[in-house]
Structure formats: structure tokens, C-alpha cells
Amino acid sequence: MTGSRTGWGSPAEFPQSRPRRLRRTAGLRRLAAETTLAPADLVLPLFVKEGIAAPQPVASMPGVVQHTPDSLRKAAYDAVEAGVGGLILFGVPAAKDARGSGADDPDGVVQVALRDLSDELGSGPNSPTVLMSDCCLDEYTDHGHCGLLTPAGEVDNDATLERYAAAAVAQAAAGSEVIAPSGMMDGQVAAIRGALDQAGFPQVAILAYSAKYASAFYGPFRDAAECAPAFGDRAAYQQDPANSTEALREVRLDLAEGADAVMVKPAMAYLDVVRRVADEVDVPVAAYQVSGEYAMVEAAAANGWVDRERIILETLLSIRRAGAGTVLTYWATEVSRRLH
Ligand code: PBG
Asked: Which of 72, 100, 117, 164 has CB atoms 3.0–4.6 Å from 67's, for a disulfide?
């Protein structure tokens, strides 16, 4: 062989070295696969709406609905049967106010749903899945922001922390095993950890949405959760898409405040961030394949422009390959069934 040596990699070159040998058969490809995808890696987000008689389709997310208590139970059973690793609940209350009262009301929509699902599915060491809850105010405030507002219309970081703490305690009391704070207030993990411990829930875990970007990919979710901000946007609290080093700082702070696991969100446009975070931490890393990622694939597939089944698996595999152990995805049940 005359080819020049690059100094790294295999010393042998073509024709001795033939990477295609390991791609010849499905069996070889399976053995050589560096990344796997399993139902246990997937978490299904579910929306439950107060005061509706039948499930309401979400127009921008074909296949996703706002659930009634009954349809929620059915969706949860389906997910459990498919082996989905966890469920994360989002609530759409019938009434909203400035302080987001529904977020910590023991009879609030998510608390009722959590109690119902933990009764139905069973909780504790033998529970067949993990019940999780998004902890934020935007679904509950009439202005649609993730926190309390100052008279000038800014989101008041420190005043909001007490609201998150109360919401987290209400969720834990209702049966949530993992609280997932998504509001991007500074100090939110510490406030929630302290409140959970004080209220007698030291065993309840925190999955922090540590690196959550101010993203247009959340558009369809805001229909599903009816939480588009009434004015302005979330750029003053969510992260700037231009940054990735800042994500590491957010992650470090959340871990110091007591986060048990961290999340990057959205997923596909931020796979570099997923990789950097995964390389940096020794806790589980999750990534959220958000509503806009789902909607883009469904829309293209509905037009016949992409192979829906293949592209879904490819997106999920890419997120796992980037370093996320857990993926939150609206396709969790469907994909889990297919993986069987
Ligand atoms: C906030 C929250 C949002 C999402 C999850 N939690 C919306 C936002 O920040 O505007 C988005 C999820 C998705 O787009 O699928 N409670």
C-alpha cells in the first residue's frame, strides 16, 4: 500500500480495510450498532384538560389530543402496555388567573390527574412506569408567562420561586415521582428541592429543564397547552439559541441546587448541546423532542414527502447518539410498540 498514513485510526487501508464488511447483513449491523433505542428510554408527554366531555384534537399536532380523565387513563394504559419508560403530565385548566392558582390547587387539573393515574397504575417500587409532572406556571396564568409579573410586566424571578415550590409540593402530594421544572427561573431547583424536603417528599426526584431555549419549535405546544404568552415572548428567561457554553453553566447550577437529572430542550436543533452536556455530567441526561419537531415530521409525512416511520426512528436515534439517555417524545407509545 502506498497511501499516506494519517497517524490515527486503523493502520490498514483499502483494500484490506473494508467498513462495508460490517454492514453486509442485518445481523452484522445489529451487532455493530453503537446506539440503541428501547421503550424504557422514552417518556410520553400527555395533556389533560379540565371540563371537556371528549378528547380535543390539537390541530398543529396530528395524533395528539387534550385528554379527558377517561382518555388520559386509556392513553396511560396504552403507554404502559407498550413499555414506555415514563409519562409526563401537562394541565390545561378551565380558569386562569394572574398567579396561576391552578398550578398548586390540590384539586387542580394535573393534581387530580396524578392522583387518578397513581391509583390506576399503582405507585411505589413496583409501579409499571414513572409518573412525572411539568412544573411551571404558563399553563395556569392568564397572561401566559411562566411566572408572576412585576407591575412593569417583567417576569419576577424570586416571587415566582414560591409559586413553583407550592406547585411542586402539590404535584408530589398527588403522586408525581419526578418534578420537572421548566420555567427557567434562576434558583428554581433549589426552591423546589427545599420545599419538597420540608413537605416530607425527599424521595421525589427533580428532572431539571436546565438548558431550555427560547425556541420557535414550541409553537404547536402552545396550542396544545393553551399557553401562548399574551404579550412579548420568553426570551428574557429562556436561553438564547446562539449559546451552548451557557447551557453548561445552567446545568452546573441546577446540579449544585439538587437536580437529579438534567434536560436539554428542544432536541434536534440542539444536538450539539446534548452532546456537550452528556460529556460534562454524571447524572442522567434527557432531551425533549418538542412539539415543533413532531409537527414538522407529521406535516411532511402527510404530504408524502418523507417516510414517516423511518424518519421518526432516525430522529430518535440521533438524539440518543448525541448522548441523551432519555427522550421525551409524543411518539413514545407508537415507537415503543414498533420496537417490540
Ligand atoms: C412550559 C413548557 C413548554 C414546553 C414544555 N414546557 C412551552 C414553553 O416554554 O413555551 C414545550 C414543549 C413542546 O413544545 O413540546 N411549561
From this structure: 72
